[in-house]
Fold this protein.
Amino acid sequence: MNDVPAALLNAAPDDRDAEQPDVWASTPELQHIRDAAQSRLMAPAAVLGAVLARRLAEVPPNIQLPPVIGDEQSLNFYTLAYGPPASGRSASDSVAAKLLGPSGVEWTPLPASGEKLAGTFVTPDSNAPHGVRFVRRTAYLAWDEVLALRASAERNGSTLLASLLSAWPGKGIGTTTQTRDRNTPVPPHSYRLCAFLGVQPANADALLAGAKDGLPQRFLWMATEDPTMPARTLGGGDIVPLRLADIFRFDDPQELGQVQHVEVCEAARDSIVAARLNVVRGHGEPASGHRLLLQEKVASGLSLLRPDCDMPIVDDASWHLAGRVMSELHDPTFTRAIKDRSREERQRVQHLGHLDEERAAAAETSAVKRVAERLDARMPPTGMTVTDINRAVAGRDKARNLHRDAREWLVNTARWVKEDGRYFRASEQ
């Protein structure tokens, strides 16, 4: 470990565990992730989000959350790292990859459309079921910046965001057209999709604008800033991979296996049912369903960080710990992002308001000068009274009191002078 300058040591917390959110001291695995992240000067929260996404990506798609309400739910999982430029968003994902060590999660090219997302998993094959052959069952997508995702989504006719919405609960994605060699239908619960996204506050609207459709609510929001980062290292520390159990998966992507349900504890079931009853009865917040499903997925991922766990489980311990991850790490970051967006929107509106005021002032000045030029052109050598000036101005300009402003402007610019209640050109006096 490198020596640290005294100034940095003095600025660092004396007791890291006392300053850090208690969630990091909850399990040896979370302590390990925190220490590894901070050894590379990365925020532990952002690293944890990527660790969960990568770990869940190793779970085959036939392992699903049970139908507590509705249908089975997929363990497909999205997380994001939220922070300013150069705050280590993409680096957080790199640290997470080192923590997991060698795994079956391979690099996957980023899709530019919903059809390409489906094509990540399948290729057309008229002799295969559903007319497609699987080339992989798992994809881990990492967008370093949300603008790249938005750029792909804004391409003409792109269905990328709609496909991401459908993929999170494990619905079918892809399309079927009359051109068979372009068909890429991917059946429900036949694929595992996990994603990592970097989001700068200035660009967060690219994601938050989809709140009405529920897209941002599907992400685990993790911060890239750590106010309690101890200055005990200058970075470059070695990362020791987590001790993880191997998760069984078929080598052949054509194999899927029988559906297996994740065991879910009564506490989780009761919370999910209670929230759903409130929504059905018209009293609850519909978004609570997304949040509890996200907590289920977080709990599943946390359970897989245990060295002896090769099958996700939502037991009392993982459900409670996931609740703390949500309340101590996710909720503050999501709330901050919404506030940041509101502040930037207010600043934008204020800026537009100032521009409108400037435009209005410029237009008013232009109108005054127009009326002034007209009055000056009509000024006789004998001068004009106020009544004469009023008669010389069109009704619409008079209604706006432009004749008064024009009169004052002509005097203030020394083109007119006033004597004995009459106005004259200064050059004629």
Summary: The longest helix spans residues 316-378. Confidence is low (pLDDT under 50) at residues 1-18. Residues 379-428 form one domain. The first strand starts at residue 63 and ends at 64.
